[in-house]
Amino acid sequence: MSIANALQGRTLATAADLSVDEQRYLYRKTRELKEAWVSGGDLAPFRISDPDLNIYLMFLEDSTRTKESFRNASKFHDVALNIFDPSSSSFKKHESLVDTVKMLFGYGRRSIFIMRTKMEGVCRALEEQLGEYAERIGREKPVFINAGDGRHEHPTQEFLDEFTFLEQRGWDDSHIHVALIGDLQHGRTVHSKADGLKIFHSVRVDLVAPREISLPASYKSRMEDNGFEVREWESIEAYLDSGDISDCWYFTRLQLERMGDEIRERETELRRAVTFQKKWLEQMPENARFYHPLPRHREKPVIPSFLDDTPLNGWDGQSVNGYFTRVVELAMVAGKLGDDFEGIGFVPARKKKSFITE
User: Fold this and answer.
1) Alpha-carbon distance 318 to 300, whole Å?
2) pLDDT for the residue 357
3) CA trace torsion 339, 340, 343, 345 (10° rounding)
4) Which of 83, 160, 177, 323 is paired with 147 by a 20 to 30 Å CA distance?
């Protein structure tokens, strides 16, 4: 099948795989889809409807919201949906990931693989290796979508976050002032914001995290290189005392499973520094919203449950937006959407080859 437009066949391994103009196109189309869905309008312009397209959900790490939103987004499109279960496959016998994907790729004319793994950089490596394989056998290259890879990035979460920020601001992309709070060291969703926030013309970022779980220097430097104004505090209390606070708070949970023993021993202290307390409600700016990629910790959430029924709750709507943005992402990389894209697309830099063997 020939390539219909510049968006078809694109792998989404990082947020930067879509240019700023391409991200804005994604958000415009998502807005159109959501408005049509809410009003009962015609959804056919967004639906792929291609029985020759195989979509594989390959979640080698646990997930609820990302997996279920992609599963339902795939069902919307009337394509061949396949849910790969590593627990009942030869993957348990240490079969290489490349061999597994190559086998599944051979079962259809067109393929999209949605991947979540603990290994970082998997989608980019698979794009290179399976792309070369597809060329050798004369097949259309498979598409890979990163649904979270280790401590690296989570681009599709970033796209739904930016859509949510725009929606909350009445589609004003002139500026944003956002506070990133919690485990910024291991939270891949905040790492993707180093590039995703570029859709706003002016960006201020407040980093709120104890030193042990602060944003890695490489991502802070990327924010500054992108022209963001970046400030830092080690706790919510210290941030509030500064007096100049954001109306957009983005929380992440403490990812204890990715921490060393020394840091885990300080869990209570670290959690206290980034958990919101009721006494601070009066200090919040008017129209402030809290966001969270979810899930929250069942017993010790950084956004406590007393906030669920307050105007600060922006995370419920944020979660719903995952469905709409992912419907559009699939339509874009499948070539259903993109003919009307006007703007500057992504020009890939030449990269060294990467390989995975497991």
Assistant:
1) 21
2) 44
3) -20
4) 177
Q: Which helix (H) or strand (E) holds 323?
A: helix 315-333
- Four-CA torsion 342, 36, 34, 19, nearest 10 degrees: -10
The amino acid that residue 229 corresponds to is E
How many angstroms separate the CA atoms of 128 and 145, rounded? 13
Distant-in-sequence, close-in-space partners of 20: CB < 8 Å, separation ≥ 6: 198, 199, 344
Measured CA to CA, the distance from residue 337 to residue 339 in angstroms comes to 6
pLDDT tens-digit series, residues 229-286: 999 999 999 999 998 999 999 999 887 665 566 666 788 899 999 999 999 999 999 9
Q: At 335, list the tokens.
A: 């070539």
Cβ–Cβ under 8 Å, residues 62 and 234: no
Distance in angstroms (rounded) separating the CA atoms of residues 209 and 292:
15
pLDDT at 358: 45
- Alpha carbons 95 and 350: distance in angstroms, whole number: 30
DSSP string, 162-185: HHHHHHHTTT--SEEEEEEEE-TT
How far lies 41's CA from each of 36, 46, 163, 350, in Å?
4, 11, 21, 43
| Positive or negative: CA dihedral 219, 221, 224, 225 | negative
Question: If you average pLDDT over residues 334-340, what whole number do you get?
Answer: 95
Hey, CA dihedral for 245, 249, 254, 255, is it positive or negative? negative
Query: Residue 248 in 3-state DSSP?
Result: strand
Residue 97: closest CA among 66, 67, 129: 129
- The contacts of residue 119 (CB under 8 Å, 6+ apart) are 97, 149, 150, 356, 358
pLDDT of residue 125: 94
Share of the chain residues as helix, strand and coil, in percent rounded to the nearest 5: 45, 15, 40
